[in-house]
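Quick one, probably user error.
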C-alpha cells in the first residue's frame, strides 16, 4: 500500500466526522430553539460541550500517550458518538438535555483533536503537508452544511438526528481502517504531564489565544440565530457555513505556498486583525446575504489562525507528550467556547446580534494587541528552542 493510499481512511474520517460537526455547530442552536429553549438556555447547553471537553480531551490525550495508540481511542469515541448521540437527541427539557449532552460531548469532543494530531504526525511520516490532509475535514464540513441545510429546510429542524447519524456511522466504520501512528517506546507517567504546565511559553500562549477563540466560538454558536434574526432561513444558514468552510479548506490546501514565509505568530496576529475587522463589519450590517458574502473571511481568520497556532504549540510540546499537549491546546480552545456560549447567549437574548458582534470586535482587538506584545517579548520572539521546523504544514 502506498503512503498516500494509507492516508485515505484518515481523509474519509476527517470528512465524515467534520460533516457531523457541521450539524452540531450549525444547527444545534436552531434545534434547541425548536425544543423551546430561550437564548440564555441555549447558551447553557452550548457551554456543556466545551465544559465536558476540558475534562475529556486531556483525559483521552493522556490515555492515548499512555497506551501508545491514537487509533483505538478514536474508534472507542466514534462508537460512543452513535450510542450517546441517539440518546441525546431524544431528550426534552433543559435538565435532561444538559445531563445527556455532557455525556455525549465527553465522547465526541476528543475525536477532532486526536484526528488532527494523527494527521499532523502522519503528514510528517509520509512527507506531505498537514494542510492538505486537514482540508478534507473542512470539505466535509462545507459539504454537510450545504446538503443538510437544504435537507432540513424541507423536512424540518426536528429531524437533524438522521443526517447526524448517517455521517457518524461512516466515521465509525472508517475509524477501524486507520493506520495508527508510531510513538516513542518510553511509557508516559502522570508526572510527565507537569512538563507542559511548567512550559511557560506554551501556557502563556494558550491563555492569550483564548481571547480570539472566544470570538470565534461565539460566532460559531450564534451565527445561525443571527441570520434567522435578520430574516434568513435554514437554507441560508447552510449556505453561510458552506461559504465559510470552503474558504477555510482553500486556506488549508494552499498552506504550502504561504505558511513557511514568516514566524507562525505573525500569522496568528494577522488572523487577529482580520477577526477584529470581521466582527465589527458583522455588527454593522442588517442583511443576511451580506453576512453570507462576508463568510469568505472565515478561512482568512480561523483557517490561518488554526494552522499557525497548532504549528506553534507543536513546536513547544515534547514528542513524548504530543497527544496530551495537543489536547491541552484544544482544552483551552474549549474554555473559550464556554465563555463564548454563556456570555454570547445572554448578550444575544438581551441586546440582539448586532451588539453582540460589535462587542466581539473589541474582544478580538484586545486579544490581537496582547499576542503582538507576546511576540515582541523574549518568550514569543524566537523560534522555540529545539523546535522541529519540518513539523506541521510545509
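Nope, works fine. Designed sequence:
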Amino acid at each position: 500500500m502506498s503512503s498516500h493510499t494509507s492516508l485515505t481512511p484518515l481523509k474519509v474520517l476527517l470528512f465524515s466526522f467534520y460533516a457531523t460537526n457541521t450539524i452540531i455547530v450549525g444547527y444545534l442552536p436552531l434545534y434547541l430553539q425548536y425544543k423551546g429553549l430561550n437564548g440564555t438556555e441555549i447558551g447553557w447547553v452550548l457551554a456543556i460541550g466545551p465544559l465536558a471537553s476540558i475534562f475529556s480531551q486531556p483525559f483521552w490525550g493522556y490515555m492515548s500517550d499512555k497506551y501508545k495508540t491514537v487509533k483505538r481511542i478514536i474508534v472507542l469515541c466514534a462508537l460512543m458518538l452513535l450510542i450517546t448521540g441517539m440518546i441525546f437527541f431524544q431528550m426534552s427539557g433543559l435538565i435532561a438535555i444538559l445531563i445527556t449532552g455532557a455525556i455525549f460531548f465527553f465522547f465526541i469532543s476528543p475525536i477532532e483533536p486526536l484526528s488532527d494530531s494523527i494527521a499532523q504526525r502522519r503528514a510528517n511520516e509520509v512527507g506531505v503537508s498537514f494542510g492538505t490532509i486537514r482540508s478534507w475535514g473542512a470539505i466535509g464540513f462545507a459539504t454537510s452544511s450545504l446538503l443538510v441545510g437544504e435537507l432540513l429546510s424541507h423536512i424540518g429542524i426536528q429531524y437533524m438526528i438522521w443526517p447526524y447519524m448517517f455521517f457518524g456511522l461512516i466515521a465509525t466504520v472508517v475509524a477501524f481502517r486507520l493506520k495508527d501512528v508510531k510513538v516513542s517506546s518510553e511509557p508516559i507517567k502522570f508526572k510527565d504531564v507537569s512538563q507542559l504546565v511548567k512550559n511557560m511559553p506554551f501556557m502563556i500562549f494558550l491563555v492569550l489565544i483564548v481571547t480570539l477563540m472566544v470570538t470565534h466560538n461565539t460566532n460559531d454558536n450564534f451565527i445561525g440565530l443571527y441570520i434567522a434574526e435578520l430574516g434568513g432561513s435554514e437554507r441560508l444558514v447552510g449556505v453561510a457555513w458552506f461559504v465559510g468552510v470552503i474558504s477555510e479548506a482553500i486556506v488549508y490546501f494552499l498552506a504550502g505556498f504561504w505558511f513557511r514565509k514568516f514566524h507562525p505568530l505573525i500569522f496568528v496576529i494577522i488572523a487577529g486583525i482580520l477577526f477584529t475587522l470581521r466582527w465589527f463589519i458583522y455588527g454593522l450590517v442588517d442583511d443576511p446575504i451580506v453576512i453570507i458574502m462576508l463568510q469568505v473571511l472565515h478561512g482568512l481568520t480561523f483557517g490561518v489562525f488554526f494552522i499557525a497556532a497548532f504549528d506553534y504549540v507543536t513546536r513547544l510540546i515534547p514528542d513524548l507528550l504530543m497527544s496530551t499537549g495537543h489536547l491541552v491546546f484544544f482544552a483551552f480552545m474549549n474554555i473559550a467556547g464556554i465563555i463564548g456560549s454563556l456570555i454570547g447567549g445572554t448578550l444575544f437574548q438581551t441586546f440582539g446580534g448586532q451588539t453582540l458582534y460589535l462587542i466581539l470586535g473589541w474582544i478580538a482587538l484586545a486579544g490581537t494587541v496582547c499576542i503582538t506584545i507576546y511576540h515582541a517579548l523574549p518568550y514569543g520572539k524566537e523560534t522555540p528552542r529545539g523546535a522541529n521546523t519540518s513539523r506541521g504544514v510545509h
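The chain has one domain: 10-381.
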